[in-house]
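Chain A, query sequence.
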Amino acid sequence: MKSLKRIMTAATLSLVVATGLTGSPALAQDAKEHYGMVVFLKGSEFFNWSYAGFQDAAKTVGATTELQGPADWDASAESRAVDQLVAKGVKGIAVTAGDADTLVTSIDNAIKAGVPVLTFDSDSPKSKRLLFVGTNNYNAGFAAGKAVGEKLGDKARVGVSLIPGLDSITHRLDGFKAGLASVAPGAKVVTEVNDEGDLQKAETVNTAMLQANPEINVIFCAHGNPGTGALAATRNVGRDQGDNKVNVLAWAIDVPILQGVEDDEYFGTVAQNPYMMGVQAFWQLWSAAHKTQFDSMTNPGFGQVPTADIDTGVKILTKGDATIQALSTPPQL
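Chain A, predicted structure.
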């Protein structure tokens, strides 16, 4: 009977951890376990939220963590950071892919070495990563496109500020176009510009876009960096207010963006849940790093993790939304 009870307890624990429904300190097996998070833009408020969730989840089981990644957008530097964490002997790695293909080799090598790796926020689907935790980017883009279509209808003429090559942004743009068409079939995406993930570059290319395409009345920022640059671009061409105003839909929860939404400078912003990404990323890594007596059916050699990606949700924030106040005090790391 005691043996059966132990088996049932192990099976139940595996299921609960794999679905991310518990955070009990009693689950800790080794207080010295160390986990890493790798980001493509260290210092970003968004990733600070993610790492805060990662840290908070780790603390409940006595694990330690570290945050690695370049201060400037550099997928190759990310790849090297993954390699270094593997060499250090961490128990698991959560990485957001600055470029979907660049991270493949490092992720695959980590998996081969027995270190569980998952992606969050931005995926590397061709890699052998165990799981993706983050926003369903197509659905988030759809919600953004629908919001624009509901505000401007068939008159919407959209310019998009993006970085080509990121799996997450590709899905966001596909979803945006579908969401826009679902409520405003006469609306159009006029053009796209590459802001290279740089604030100054975003202002320059969006200013040029508005000058070359005066029919544009919406700028859709497909990631977190171009929001302030896009807004500055509308000022540069004298279209930041009045009937000829260009509506800017940001994709960020940085405090200046949130304040801008409240001040009616932005039409709104797409708010992901980076803190939950960090929490779920840690728990899935913890589960993957702790094999039970039941081998994983989909990832032999690792503990149990879900076969489906985990969607951490999204919300379109506009002026007066209570969530803006809740996000206005970002974590200090």
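The chain is about 40% helix and 15% strand. Residues 1-30 have pLDDT under 50 and may be disordered.
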